[in-house]
Amino acid sequence: MPIWNSREECLDLEERAQQQLERVQSTLNRAFKNVPFYRNQFESKEIDPAQIEKLSDLHRIPFTEREFLSVNYPYGLFAVPLRDVVRIHTAPGTTLRPMVSGYTKNDLQVWREVVARAFTAAGVSGLDILQIVLDPGLTNWGRDYKDGAEAIEASVIPLSVLPPEKHLMVLRDYKTSVLVTSPSAALQLMNLLFHNNLNPNALTLRTLILVGEALDPILQNELEEQLHVNTWVQYGLSEMPGPAVAFECEQRQGLHVNEDHFFPEVVDPVSGGALSAEEEGELILTTLTTRAFPLIRFRTGDRVRLVAGACPCGRTLRRIVWSPQRTDELVVVRGVKVHHRQISLFLERALGGAPESYRILIRRQDFRDFIEVWLAVEDKLFSDEIKEMEKLVQNLSIELGQELGLPVTIRLKEKRSFASPVPLPPIEDLRNQSSNPE
Questions:
Q1: Disulfide engineering: 336 pairs with which of 77, 137, 205, 384, CB 3.0-4.6 Å?
Q2: CA 53, CA 26: separation in Å to the nearest integer?
Q3: Cβ distance 104 to 292 under 8 Å?
Q4: Residues 6 or more apart whose Cβ sits within 8 Å of residue 282
């Protein structure tokens, strides 16, 4: 028998559309009234929110680009007075300015319900012990997952920054039954388990909630077979801000979008025009119930397609199939989005000027994903004291890692390492390659 958390998941299509239209209109009016950025956006296109009389009219409204969030740092997109904001989150942006989002008390309650709904779909209950293992760049998600798990009265081991070996020890000794983590981190833990000659049957783990990255079905099956668990994929994004915007049900026929809180569109990433069902394009989201930080037609950069037809589980929430490929220049590392501009601006600031040559690579070693930055040895970096150069590189690695919330290694290289017969991408993803880029 299907399980769902509320009547909202099973509205008939006509009732769903009416609910969404009313919430879209409320969001547009609130943003127009309280957020100068959106008022200027509307007025530049000669749009009056009152003219949005049906959901298809949304295409007239300009997109909200990711860079707008950093440009309006810190509180330019808030739609309520700061006295009504009870939690403030920051996440890496595409520049050195982070993205800042906020929650009202009601927003936090809505997010607890959204996460609890996704947990319930995965069969998580008050009898479970739930452990959260995410990189520092997803600390905000750790809080939301903790709150959602507590809402269904599960026992929670909150997110903490520990070495993988310690996470594995907690997983075993605390009898964790549900693990929330990224696919990359799950793969690392799985291989660490076998490296230490631990039998998965010795664990109490039965459920993996995989977040932050689109999941290759081959890897999903491998994790299930090797760890003897059920896996459930959930989609979220830090700009909304948070996890469980969409979730997988037991049918595994796409991820259900929480349409009572987020209105999805799929558009051509080049033209911005709407696509029909089953055509793959860029996911556009509009918040429907968020009060502190409404986002209107936000370009996620995530490539998806809508699934036509009803899901056998009984939910009427539309479904998406999430592709690992993106429509923008962001690269996802262990669930955290990275833009090359963040790294180049960091280097320019830290070194007192732009480096002559550098390369940004995403590596995988011992099933651990990390960022590696090559810097050409030049006058501003050179020192007769090797210890001084080692100290500089170590400090840069630590500071950039803290900036991104990910493991970072910086290496000094001779200038010949930067010669390439073909143009290189801003970030070279070498996770699935064994060759040496040098």
A1: 137
A2: 12
A3: yes
A4: 266, 267, 268, 269, 299, 300, 301, 302, 303, 304, 327
SS3 35: coil
Which tokens go with 228? Answer: 């003897």
What is the rounded CA–CA span in Å between residue 233 and residue 247? 6
Which domains, and CATH codes, for the chain? Answer: 7-328 (3.40.50.12780), 339-429 (3.30.300.30)
Distance CA 236, CA 302 (A): 10
Structure tokens at 233: 């994929």
Structure tokens at 1: 């028998």
Is residue 267 very low, low, confident or very high in pLDDT (cuts 50, 70, 90)?
very high
* Beta strand residue intervals within 55-149, DSSP E: 87-91, 99-103, 129-133
Contact 287, 294 (CB under 8 A): yes
pLDDT in tens, 174-212: 999 999 999 999 999 999 999 999 999 999 999 999 999
Q: Where are the beta strands (DSSP E) in 129-216?
A: 129-133, 155-157, 178-181, 207-211
What span, in angstroms and rounded, lies between the C-alpha atoms of 5 and 353? 54
Looking at per-residue pLDDT, the higher value among 376 and 79 belongs to 79
For β-strands 319-326 and 298-307, DSSP reports them as antiparallel
Q: Burial, 116: exposed, middle or buried (Cβ in 10 Å; 0-12, 13-18, 19+)? A: buried
Peptide bond into 74 cis (omega under 30): yes
Distance separating alpha carbons of residues 274 and 268, to the nearest angstrom: 6
Looking at residues 27-38, what average pLDDT do you find?
A: 97
Paired strand residues for 429: 362
Give which of 204, 200, 430, 221 is closest to 333, Cα–Cα.
430
pLDDT band at 436 (very low <50, low <70, confident <90, very high): low
Could you write out the DSSP letters of every residue in 355-401?
A: -SSEEEEEEEETTEEEEEEEEE--TTT--S-HHHHHHHHHHHHHHHH
Angle at 362 between CA 132 and CA 381, to 5 degrees: 115
Contact status, residue 362 vs residue 399, Cβ threshold 8 Å: no
